[in-house]
Amino acid sequence: MAGGAFRVMLEMTIKPGLAAEFEEEWRSGTDAVTGHPANIGQWLARSTADEDTYYIVSDWTDETGFRAFEDGKAHVAHRERLHAYRASATFDTMRVVEHIEGAAHAR
Q1: For the whole model, what pTM was predicted?
Q2: Which of the ends of the chain has fewer CB neighbours closer than 10 A, N or C?
Q3: % the chain with pLDDT above 90
């Protein structure tokens, strides 16, 4: 990923006992995000400190592309399906300033 990408991070605490169902629902709807022409990629990570906390990170070519996606029908539908699992969430956006690949990247 080149410097200057627009990154979105959602920290989401899900309702206890719903991890497997949440992960399956997230997986089943990823095309709503990764299918958008401005999307570079998306990741789902689970906290090692709190098993009910997840981080959803997505990278975009630019903020304009992300904002166009944000209100799109596919995203709104996917977001509503995930909302059923959510106990709380925080949302942040940022601009990638620099990216340096590590030694393991080439393997």
Answers
A1: 0.88
A2: C
A3: 83
